[in-house]
Design brief:
- The protein is α/β, with parallel strands linked by helices and 441 residues long.
- Helix content is 33%, strand content 23%.
- Strands 6-7-8-9-10-11-12-13 form an eight-stranded parallel sheet. The chain has a four-stranded mixed sheet with strand order 3-2-1-4.
- The radius of gyration is 22 Å and the shape is globular.
- The two termini are 27 Å apart.
- This is Amidohydrolase.
- InterPro entries: Amidohydro_3 (IPR013108), Metal-dep_hydrolase_composite (IPR011059), Metal_Hydrolase (IPR032466), Metallo-hydrolase_Enzymes (IPR052349), TAT_signal (IPR006311).
Length: 441
């Protein structure tokens, strides 16, 4: 009889191959802001019995199902070297029929400040809105910074277990943290670099002018970050134009993108959106590199105004990053998509002083979007996957396979589902993650 904790031969091969290649995900990622942060594995291996989508099944011109077949993937130098007919190879890792999907992307999270991995703490009673939370942070951050690297590592591991090998993380840059929050997170990313990538946003969480974070933001812009962040220019800093102008110029001076938290509704929220559109139109280099996170004002515009604003955002190539939804605020994502606005999602806060409920799963976010907007058919569910994968889908709208292809980056998640539609509808269990050719688990 096999001992209870004995490894099967397949498990032994899997673990041995990982150890030999040095691929156990335990390191970080501090990447270059001028180039995609990348991790290339020098090893070559195969994964067999990988289920891939190959086309749609139609009935009376309506998509009623998804075709799949199993294949063997050959991985080398961080890429999918070849997609082969399934082979009986004892040396290959066995995916056991799990469905491969593009690795998930969490595009709005705060890795630098979390209680995750430590003692449970629920959200404290709030007073004074965002400014009240700033005051609370000024009390909490000095202690949080003492262990923020370790907590960030635990949070990264949670994201990996949910299928995300990539994130955009906002990092506090303000007089309380100074640059320490950034430096601590960079250490965590360096330790996790073999199985995780991140792009970083220098985020003046306490306001550019409200706490005068400008000197720290200028210094952070010279460091390894990718985006210049911002927060509610009117309600926090008291002046839309002054705050946006500073943010835009700092991004232009250092070749960065822009990602601004905008919680404001009403006239100031709309004016902020319109002024940012104007500045991006004046500086086309920022098109496709500028985002509004949350942007709750869009949920409160009437039909005609929403259409005009969504069209202007699409023309300026300003993306929207939504947590789908936020409390009772339901974002107009279908309208944004209709006008070509890039819509991304993320978990935002996970077990911290802002939020208690983050799960770490963007697949769950895609499921929630499908429920909110009535995406219940096989076709509509399959299209919903793109919000979790940053737009990458296995099949195009005509049912032609477009992912994966030989030469693609070897970043994919293995899930317990028969197709994308089922993965979304059932929030499929994640069975494995490969990031840049490195098996994470």
């Amino acid at each position: 009889m096999k001992a209870k904790n004995a490894l099967s031969r397949k498990d032994f091969i899997w673990q041995t191959s990982l150890a030999a290649a040095g691929m156990m995900a335990s390191s970080p990622y501090l990447a270059s802001a001028k180039a995609k942060r990348g991790i290339a594995s020098s090893s070559s291996y195969r994964i067999k019995n990988v289920r891939l989508e190959t086309g749609f099944i139609y009935e009376n011109d309506e998509v009623i199902g998804t075709k799949t077949e199993t294949f063997t993937l050959e991985i080398a130098d961080g890429k999918i070297k070849a997609i082969l007919p399934n082979v009986n190879d004892d040396q290959a890792i066995d995916a056991q029929g799990a469905l491969a999907l593009p690795a998930f992307h969490d595009m709005h999270i705060h890795l630098d400040k979390t209680f995750f991995g430590g003692q449970w703490q629920a959200v404290r009673p709030r007073q004074g809105g965002v400014k009240g939370m700033i005051a609370l942070e000024q009390q909490l951050l000095p202690k949080m910074l003492q262990s923020s690297t370790e907590h960030a590592e635990k949070l990264i591991e949670l994201l990996q277990s949910k299928g995300s090998g990539y994130a955009r993380s906002h990092v506090n840059i303000e007089p309380t943290s100074k640059l320490d929050s950034l430096k601590n997170l960079q250490r965590a990313l360096e330790r996790k670099k073999d199985g995780f990538q991140a792009e970083l946003v220098a985020f003046p969480q306490h306001g550019l002018f409200y706490t005068d974070s400008r000197s720290y933001m200028k210094e952070a812009a010279t460091m390894d970050i990718d985006f210049i962040g911002g927060l509610d220019p009117y309600s926090i800093d008291g002046n839309i134009e002054r705050t946006i102008d500073f943010t835009v110029q700092l991004a232009l001076d250092h070749g960065k993108g822009i990602d601004i938290h905008l919680h404001e509704g009403g006239e100031s929220g709309l004016k902020t959106v319109e002024y940012l559109i104007k500045k991006v139109q004046e500086n086309p280099v920022l098109q496709g590199k500028t985002y509004l996170s949350h942007s709750f004002i869009l949920a409160h515009l009437d039909g005609a105004q929403l259409e005009r604003t969504a069209e202007a955002l699409g023309q300026a190539k300003i993306g929207i990053i939504s947590t789908i939804p936020f409390g009772r605020t339901i974002m107009p994502i279908p309208t944004l998509c209709k006008h070509g606005v890039e819509v991304l999602t993320g978990n935002d806060s996970i077990i911290d002083h802002w939020n208690t409920f983050g799960s770490g799963s963007v697949l769950q976010k895609a499921n929630l979007a499908a429920q909110l907007y009535g995406y219940v058919t096989e076709f509509a569910l399959s299209r919903s996957l793109k919000i979790a994968t940053r737009g990458v889908l296995p099949l195009n709208d005509s049912g032609q396979q477009q992912w994966p292809k030989a030469g693609d980056e070897a970043s994919f998640v293995l899930v317990d589902a028969s197709c994308s539609a089922e993965a979304i509808a059932r929030i499929a269990d994640v069975k494995g993650l490969v990031q840049h050719g490195n098996p994470v688990f």
